[in-house]
Amino acid sequence: MLGATELLRDLPDEALVRAHACARVERLPGHHRIFEQGDRCERAYAVAKGSVSIVQAGSDGGQAIIRFIAPGEMFGTVPLFTDHMLPADAITAEPSVVLSWSEADINALIDAYPRMSMNIIRVIGTRLVELQDRVRELATQRADQRLARALLRLSRHDGNGELAFPLRRKDLAEFSGTTLYTASRMLTAWARAGVLTSIGRRILIHDRAALHFLAEGRSLP
Amino acid sequence: MLGATELLRDLPDEALVRAHACARVERLPGHHRIFEQGDRCERAYAVAKGSVSIVQAGSDGGQAIIRFIAPGEMFGTVPLFTDHMLPADAITAEPSVVLSWSEADINALIDAYPRMSMNIIRVIGTRLVELQDRVRELATQRADQRLARALLRLSRHDGNGELAFPLRRKDLAEFSGTTLYTASRMLTAWARAGVLTSIGRRILIHDRAALHFLAEGRSLP
DNA sequence: CGCTTCTTTGAATTTCGTCAAAAGGCGTGG
DNA sequence: CCACGCCTTTTGACGAAATTCAAAGAAGCG
What we know:
2 copies of one chain form a homodimer.
Chain A: H1 13-21, E1 24-28, E2 33-35, E3 43-49, E4 52-57, E5 63-69, E6 74-75, E7 89-92, E8 96-102, H2 103-112, H3 115-140, H4 143-154, E9 161-162, H5 169-176, H6 180-192, E10 196-199, E11 202-205, H7 208-215
Antiparallel strand pairs in A: 1-8, 2-7, 3-6, 3-8, 4-5, 4-7, 9-11, 10-11
Chain B binds a DNA duplex through residues 142-144, 168-170, 178-182, 184-185, 187-188, 198, 200-201.
């Protein structure tokens, strides 16, 4: 199962065994803070089960959700290689299992298997491109377009279905750069139009095509 | 001089010689497009002299400036390691000298000097953190705060002085997520207040502290 | 000097955030 | 099992912020 994590992809079995040997495994309840913005970064993390949200707070109260982490994805890893300051909070969005490795172990693994550094480059390169898209969207698009795009991003990429994460309106708003009020308004409007339904903290997408229309600024057909 | 580029930092002289041998050097006029969004990525670039802006356009006409590249910084490099699709345009902001290396040469260099992959990780890790900050700002702050922050980012970090890049109002707007009209209004207001002066495409900061106030949402003292 | 590009400024409009308040859900503990 | 309190969602009304449109100056460049 470790072989499915993006950090350890395409590594020989021997490397997986070694990574497994030095991994710390933690079962955490929902809404548990794994690390805090400003903490010193001393471990590399990955989600095995459940989900984690990465939340950044500004010196004013403003918060934004930078990213949701799904099983198999790593997080909190980049600062190990830069300035060792964690730039955001990590909070479980539901009961989750989280793996982590000490900095020393990670460095030893990278030395032993240079392909790992290529994996890291590929992963953070992909995230960089995603964030660039979000910067452009936040800079140029309306709130409804961004919210529709957020739903598309959070839904599994194949066909219709449930969002991959349990979300409150507040979370959705902080992820798409708006307020929970406008997020609520738009969701109820779209639910009325049959695009989606919202049950508790789960959202089901019925009409992906409609969301694409909305994300491009067109109105519902 | 190559040793000053972030890509080749801390490498032995022998590596610099080799990098120099296979580098392509180009003198380009201002507003020259180096590559285009959607192109296949086949080279790694760095600015030796001048400056380059990285501009992303959406399927609607909306444009955003993702980043300005100063001498010594690399650009267009990440997609070499991911999907080989360039996610944005690169355009010289003034007459510039641009270095580039073929993918094969870069890979050969990385194989020979594994420290280079660590350099790459450090560089794109740093950019990732910067972009996270911008996402939060775009999501939570007002246009005037973002514009003030943009000016702070673009000015040299020590004391007052001239911005590092020649900028039109449109560029400033596309970099801070607003329109050229509001950017113009705010700049003239701040110029009247003595915070800065604008001469042609160059902006001089007189009162960095005031910009910090503005970026935090407070009004001018 | 004439042209293009860029900047400024005003006025109207839209979008969106803010505030307030009511209604709904959910879990805990009695 | 019910009642209570807390958290979340919904909805309306209002106002502030920022975009849009229009048009006139200003500045650079051939």
